[in-house]
């Protein structure tokens, strides 16, 4: 049996999802069994195109399956100009118009079920988009839950407030699905804004990516330099730019990269009202509820960036 960790990456590229993909695909610790897409940063069609473009450019072949086109209950009403990833969802790099890679004929939760059912080792689900596919999967295949090792999710926030109180995009876009995850009993590591806004890259990092000399590094440098402009203009300029999604991958490759985390009870508000979609983290342990998530607050940033550069250097 391979000593690699079997994972499925569920994503909605997105610039930071692209970094998550490269990090996972270039890692010799992970065995990426499949990639599943979810409508999030952009609608399904663009997300599918972006994932396939990244894989083709990086010279990787994996099963890529389309998933949920909208949240379980809520509408998907984003327009092309929403968010900070540009019109395509991956503005900043011109991928070749022709891409021989095609989508799987299976849908995301079929692929998840197949992989999890047949894996000799429990599978880790890494989720870097809205939580819809994973929520659906847990509901549709409860018998397979024992063979899920962990859900490493870029979602939620404990203290860090970006725009609205306690809201993070992946968690709130499909709050009902997020709730299913928090109530599932599966071990959860939550890489929310608390940690992701403390791991900021600057141009020295994108120059290191370029210096790998790989096509992958070149693509990343171009996309991330553009993302810095888009993100910092749209959201907040903290003197660098976050790569949220890649944090949830790094923590699976090497859990010791996390330097501060705490187990606590987390719930998401699904009831209507101004806080619908907010993650409520019982960081003072006052609710009397058993912890259901490990909430990450800090990582070894230097090691994180080194890891990403290493992966970029290993791909085409
Ligand atoms: C999350 O939202 C998206 O814009 C990013 O890809 C990331 O997954 C951050 O809130
Ligand atoms: Ca994402």
Automatic annotation (TrEMBL):
Keyword entries, A-Z: Glycosidase, Hydrolase
Gene Ontology cellular-component annotations: cytosol
Protein name as it appears in the record: Nucleoside hydrolase
Record InterPro entries: Inosine/uridine_hydrolase_dom, IUNH, Ribo_hydro-like
Protein's GO biological process: purine nucleoside catabolic process
Domain named Inosine/uridine-preferring nucleoside hydrolase: residues: 7-306
Organism superkingdom: Bacteria
Keyword Acetylation (UniProt): no
UniProt-recorded Gene Ontology molecular function terms: purine nucleosidase activity
Gene3D superfamilies: Ribonucleoside hydrolase-like
């Amino acid at each position: 049996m391979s000593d690699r960790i079997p994972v499925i990456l569920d994503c909605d590229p997105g610039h930071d999802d692209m970094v998550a993909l490269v990090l996972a695909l270039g890692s010799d610790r992970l065995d990426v069994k499949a990639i599943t897409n979810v409508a999030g940063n952009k609608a399904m069609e663009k997300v599918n195109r972006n994932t396939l473009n990244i894989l083709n450019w990086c010279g990787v072949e994996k099963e890529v399956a389309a998933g949920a086109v909208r949240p379980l209950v809520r509408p998907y009403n984003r327009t092309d100009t929403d968010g900070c990833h540009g019109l395509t969802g991956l503005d900043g790099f011109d991928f070749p118009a022709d891409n021989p890679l095609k989508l799987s004929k299976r849908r995301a939760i079929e692929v998840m079920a197949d992989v999890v059912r047949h894996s000799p080792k429990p599978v880790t689900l890494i989720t870097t988009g809205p939580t819809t596919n994973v929520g659906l999967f847990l509901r549709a295949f409860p018998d397979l839950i024992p063979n899920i090792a962990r859900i490493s999710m870029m979602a939620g926030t404990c203290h860090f407030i970006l725009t609205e109180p306690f809201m993070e995009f992946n968690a709130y876009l499909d709050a009902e699905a997020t709730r299913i995850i928090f109530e599932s009993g599966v071990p959860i590591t939550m890489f929310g804004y608390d940690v992701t806004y403390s791991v900021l890259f600057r141009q020295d990092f994108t120059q290191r990516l370029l210096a790998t000399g790989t096509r992958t590094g070149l693509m990343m440098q171009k996309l991330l330099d553009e993302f810095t402009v888009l993100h910092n203009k749209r959201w907040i300029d903290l003197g660098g730019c976050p790569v949220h999604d890649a944090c949830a991958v790094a923590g699976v490759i090497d859990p010791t990269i996390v330097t501060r985390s705490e187990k606590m009870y987390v719930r998401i508000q699904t009831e209507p009202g101004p806080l619908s979609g907010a993650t409520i983290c019982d960081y003072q342990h006052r609710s009397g509820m058993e912890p259901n998530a490990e909430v990450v607050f800090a990582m070894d940033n230097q090691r994180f960036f080194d890891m990403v550069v290493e992966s970029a250097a290993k791909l085409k």
